[in-house]
Structures are given as C-alpha cells and as structure tokens.
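Practice problem. Given the sequence and the SMILES for zinc ion, write out the predicted structure.
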Amino acid sequence: MPDQKPDLVIKGGTVLDETGRRSADVAVADGVIVEVAESIDAGSAAVLDAGGCLVTPGLVDLHVHLREPGREEAETIETGARAAALGGFTAVLAMPNTEPAIDSVAVAREVLDKGRDAVIDVYSSGSITVGRKGEQLSPMAELAALGIRVFTDDGSGVQDDRLMRRALEYASGLGVTMAQHCEVEALSKGGHMHEGAWSSRLGIAGIPAEAEELMVMRDIALSRLTGAPVHFQHLSTAGSVALVRQAKADGANVTAEACPHHFTLTAAEVASYDPVFKVNPPLRESADVAAIKAGLADGTIDAIATDHAPHTQETKEAPFDEAPCGMLGLETALGLGMTELGLPIERLLALMSWQPAAISGIRDAHGGPVQEGRPANLVVVDPDATWVVDAYRLSSKSRNTPYAGRTLTGRARHTICNGEAVVIDGEAQR
Ligand SMILES: [Zn+2]
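Answer key:
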C-alpha cells in the first residue's frame, strides 16, 4: 500500500507500456503515479472508468505548429494544447516557424511561459538559423540552456551544406538533436503539389520526390561526418524511407518521423483543387504511402508526428496555387493510426509515445513505463470507439482537416497530464 492517499484512480483498464500489458488500476497523487495494482480502493479519490480501455503513457507529438506568437487567429498555444489533449497527447513539441521565429531566448521564453498555463506540457524547439533564413546559426547554446533539446528550421530545410555541417558540430557539443525539414529549394521552388501524373493532368507545378530525397541523402552523409544525430521530419517518399533504412543498417545516428496524411492520402486528392489537401511535403503516390506504412511497421520510421498546421478558413479558401500549406492533425492522428495502419497496438503506441518522447529528450516526464514514482502523464484509449470526424466539432481554432466525414475506430477517452484529468470521456475539462 502506498503511503499517500490517491486523488485520482483509473479503474478497470489494461495497462500497456513498453514493458508489456497487464490488468491493473492506476492511482495518482500530486501529479505522480503512486500505485499500479490489480484492485485499488479509491476511497475518496476521483475515479476514471477505464473498462475495455488501454491505460498507456500519454502520446507525444514532436511536430506541431501552435502559431503563437504571430498567427493567433489560426491557433494559440492554449487552443493547440487543448486539441492535443483531446487527441490523447500529454506533450507536444512546438515548431519555431512563428512570427518572430523561435531563434532567441526572449521568444523561446514567451512560448515556454505561455505553455505553462496550457492543459498539457508544451515544449519548444529552437530554430537552427536566425530568422530561419539559413544564413547564420541561432544562439543554440543559450537556447539549449533554457532546456531546448531539438533544433529545426521547419518550414524550410537548411540549404547550405557547410552551415548544416557547423550546426551539427555545435549540436554534438551541446547534446541536442538537429531535426530537418528535407527540401532542396532549387528543386521545389514554384511547386504546389507532388510532381507526377496528377500534377501534369491538373496543370499544377510539381515538387519532385528528389527535392526531399537529396537532402535526406546529404544529412545522412553529414551525420556520418560529424557523428551528430539527425532526425528527419515528415518523410513522404519511398526513396527517403529506403535511404533511412539503409543508413540505419549501416549504423548511422539517424531517426525519422512520418505524418498521418502521408500514410492515408495521395496526390489524387488534389484533383478536387481543394487547398485542404495542400501540404508540404506534398501528398505523394500510392507506392509512397505503402513505403511509409512499411517503414512504420519495420522500425525504419521511429515516430508518427502530426505536423498539425492550422490555417484560418479565409487563407485556405484561396485558389490552390495561393493557399498556404498544412493540415490539422492532433485530434485525428490516433484514430487514423488505429484505423489505417493495421499495426499491433504496442507498435503504434511506441511510434506515438515512447519513441517520440526519447527523440525529443523528454523521457523523464513522458512516454516512460506506467509505474510508481513516474509523473502521471497518461492516456486512456478506447480501441472500440467509432466516430466520424466533424471539422466543426474539432477543438482547434482552425477547420482545415482533410478527414471531415471519415469514420475512425479508436479514440482517446481520458487524458491525464501531471495528475490532472484534462480530458474526461472525450470532453476537455478546461
Ligand atoms: Zn516541415
């Protein structure tokens, strides 16, 4: 029996983490798991029913755009974090392509401070270069001193080979990870969708798969040269998956993520000319979708990341060529993973919780085993809940989901962050 009286007990579920699964109740007090046992007497504690559900470490999304500062009309740290909680996430890593970019201690502090009031844990990445312009390295040591563990110019890749080499050398010394949005701009410039049969048919300028693959290739080489880890963001092509698979077989220090839209949608969707399907990297071909799924299944790809990218209706109503890139992702990722991938649930949760937590450097608080003494960051997943995506019922400030009307099976029922039940029975509590 624990010494401390629990304030919350999760009852009747199957606990599942990287150590395996067992039937157990989970008791929480003061933000910490205090007991995991077969039948816990709740006493006066609040009870969350987990019957028929999995009790697992909270999901971790290492790629979200929260739009604050600068584009608060599309999303804020507060609303993005709430959408994440509803999706089963207890931690998100905010990308630095805000306005201004997260390239200084002042902006990083602002994001982290606002994050402290959010319903889940909001971590920040820092940009690799000042203003994400690809010209001059950001003050990485100062940002690392604030606790920033991941650097990226996401939205763009670092084009200059020599600058990227120097960034990786600094990263080695600081013990941080460089994450790359792989896109050679000389090849992608002017493109609005994947270059292939559909772009020719629709008369829309294309972005070839090679624009991504050349940078994946370069960064595998630079990681080898410097010994520094590289994390590949939102891989979208069969060629990229093959490159990472081979690099890992050769012992390279690389990790990779893929997004739900790249394992569920193809360039054929663009035939509607609906900008909701405009995203970067673009939706590719069915062979690429198959390769991403295979990479997720065989361990080539380490994490599912949403690349949650809210945009106001106004901007997404522009003609396809003029509309901004990006889709919502936080509230649909778990359901899409459970419905579309056909993976054992243990494998899916590894991709959505403990592995992204490790890449983000936050395993002290997220993604760890469900055991006494660990912070209570948990999600109760109902694997049988069937629901239909309704853009107007999503919690995000924006509406740009490409999945409206799609039926999914599997949903977060309760989300517990630092011991607080922030989502109960699918409803946000604050
Ligand atoms: Zn990106």
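Check your answer against the key. The longest strand covers residues 378-388.
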